[in-house]
Design goal:
alpha+beta, 5-stranded antiparallel β-sheet, 6-stranded antiparallel β-sheet, 11 helices
């Protein structure tokens, strides 16, 4: 009798698990969010890029590009392209080498020649301060696709030809190179004490946030930009509000053929909402992340080149563009 009861209970549990899996696979990404994060409103920047109908899935034979990705690239040596983007004049290879090798003269000249600083210190976040900064609209309009759909598409550097063939992308094109670079970034191993994942769907992003933070009581913060703003202009800080202090998860949108986010955590951070107004009247509520421990960051990375600092000696802050997402427990 006991064996029969145990057998029946096992069959019931297996059927229940199967039903749950099938049900979750069938629901839309937006409903999945609401089920998993019932106390967390879905941000507009996500909602606007979800399929409009339950069975609507559109893919285009293209790669979507954003404007800036400084927030994600803190672990490698500063590149010529990164240096060029924030300088008044394009650097030559010799100058870049001097900066990376730690030449004081090269660093001083570099500091005097900046258009803007993508990285800064917490003390720089003060009311009344005027900063020069590019648009916080990332303009990466890659759509979110349902998990069951994207999981049918390869996402591996070993299967790059299959990925390019799926999206009909020429292997010698810029788009092909971008896809290769994004996949390789997603395959890089995590640093000591860090957890990271490239979320290829909204569902996988939600699941990773729950796994990392250990709760479904989560605040989600994003930058908001009102009004058309110039590519680079002066902003005046009007208010600084601390939102969180502790472990969180940050997701940076990458250049790809659909929405892919590099999500990571593992460090203690302070999160601020910084209200600013641009010279053209644009109103911005910018999320700023301040990393307290930078001891494991690359000493030749862009943050230390910009700030003339060394790993572990100071906290480092940066703004998030409007399609980057912060998950913070409450």
């Amino acid at each position: 009798m006991k064996l029969q009861l145990l057998y029946s209970l096992t069959i019931f549990l297996l059927a229940f698990v199967a039903c749950v899996c099938v049900c979750y696979a069938a629901i839309s990404p937006e409903v999945y969010w609401k089920v998993k994060l019932p106390n967390t409103p879905i941000p507009k920047v996500i909602k606007d890029l979800l399929p409009q109908a339950e069975n609507e899935v559109h893919t285009k034979e293209k790669v979507y590009y954003g404007l800036h990705q400084h927030g994600a690239w803190i672990f490698h040596d500063a590149t010529e392209d990164e240096i060029r983007e924030i300088k008044k004049q394009s650097p030559n290879r010799d100058e870049l080498q001097h900066v990376n090798e730690g030449s004081n003269n090269a660093k001083s000249h570099f500091q005097d020649n900046l258009l803007y600083k993508p990285y800064f210190l917490e003390k720089d976040l003060e009311k009344g301060r005027v900063i020069n900064f590019p648009s916080l609209k990332n303009k990466n309009e890659a759509p979110f696709l349902p998990r069951q759909f994207v999981e049918s598409i390869p996402f591996s550097s070993k299967k790059l030809p299959e990925i390019l063939n799926h999206f009909s992308i020429d292997s010698s094109s810029k788009d092909a190179k971008t896809i290769e670079e994004t996949v390789k970034v997603c395959e890089e191993p995590a640093m000591k004490g860090e957890r990271r994942k490239c979320a290829t769907s909204l569902e996988s992003m939600v699941d990773f946030s729950l796994s990392m933070l250990g709760t479904n009581n989560i605040h989600v913060f994003t930058t908001e930009v009102q009004g058309e703003n110039q590519m680079l202009q002066k902003y005046t800080i009007e208010e600084v509000q601390q939102l969180a202090d502790g472990v969180n998860m940050i997701c940076h949108k990458l250049n790809y053929a659909y929405a892919v986010h590099f999500c990571h955590g593992g460090g203690i951070t302070k999160t601020f909402m910084v209200s600013m107004i641009g010279a053209d009247g644009a109103k911005v509520k910018a999320v700023s992340i301040c990393h307290k421990d930078t001891s494991l960051w690359n000493p030749k990375g862009l943050p230390f080149v910009v700030l003339k600092a060394k790993p572990g000696t100071t906290g480092i802050c940066h703004f998030l563009q409007d399609d980057q997402i912060v998950f913070s427990p409450f």
